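Input/output pair, single chain:
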Amino acid sequence: MAAHLSSELMLLLAACRSDVDFVAVHDRMGDRIDWQRFGFLARSHKLGALAATRISRANLDSVPEDVFLMLEAYRRDIVTRNLAQEVGTVQVAQLLADAGVHALAFKGVAAARLLHGDVHDQRVSSDIDILIDPEDLQPAEAALAAAGYRKDWPGFEVSSRAQPTLMYLAHAFTWISPDMGLAVELHHRLTHNPHWFDVRFDRLWDAAEEVSLQVGTVRTLGPADMAAYMCCHAVDHDYFVLKWIDDAAKAVARADQMASSPDWLPRELKATMAVVRAREIIGALAAGEQSGSLKPGHGDVARAGIGAAIAGIETAEFSDETRRMSDLPREFAGIARRAMLGGSCKAAWHDIFQVLADPRDVRALGLGLSWQPLYAAMGLPFAVWRYLSRS
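Output:
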């Protein structure tokens, strides 16, 4: 039995492609579009600014005024935020460069310029993502602190002996800019799981490309690295936000076009199945938009749970980050799923360790990486207590 894609989701998918496709799908759907639901999906999937832009350019008179005004207000807010983030991104990159630290602006406005073009009216980014060499973390944080940036997460320091354990658990630390209050995520690796994309920073830097923003230039990931990362990012987060799938789709298309070989996947990428899964859902959504339905039982597409993922996209009901006892079955199922994607036992262990351990335990116990088994054993009662206290 085929799972039908809603008219609203098909229209939002068309908005991700072009003005022409958006108008064509709108004309084909006619009065079947529930505009209130379309507005809800667009906002939930961080595509509200894009939806407002498409509607405005198409000069549609079928959109209720309250929906259009809501999306237009969202678009204006996003344009303002993106302009601020362009300035903030260049400021951080220059600040780190002055401190002798190489930095890659690998998501946000830098990626938006390359993948979406008209960044201000289309793509929203909640923070500024900066990637540095792990060995440069100390001078990078010192430079940010000296410039007035405030460390927001974690809100504590650990001993030098425990620092590698903290970095093993967390792939980024958050800083807040002193002037505009922008969140800057300082990454010391690309993916949550260090074994998914185990690549040296100098190799990423050598393959990087420059992108021009309105207020300066920054370096970002090269086409193949960006495509692999965007696929991992979408799958890592259970592809529940359509913006992330659209990023992956555009990055893959760009890598396919620019790479000298069809086999452009970085050799350091261990989570190759994550790219396969991302390609599957991209293809399934494209096929579903054309036919209006997703037919199960089609090879790996069905086994990957693509139908369930699209059902989640349709509902757009995202839970908060509070961990509860009732979430345990889903969380362990997620670990099992990720184990098939990560490509190694080390990757699977990292996901298990993240459930059992916690940065607060790292601060309290102050042990090094070699004590992971003890952290896991001691972390279990701590984890149960945290689940119970948050349920």
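The longest strand covers residues 172-176. Residues 323-391 form one domain.
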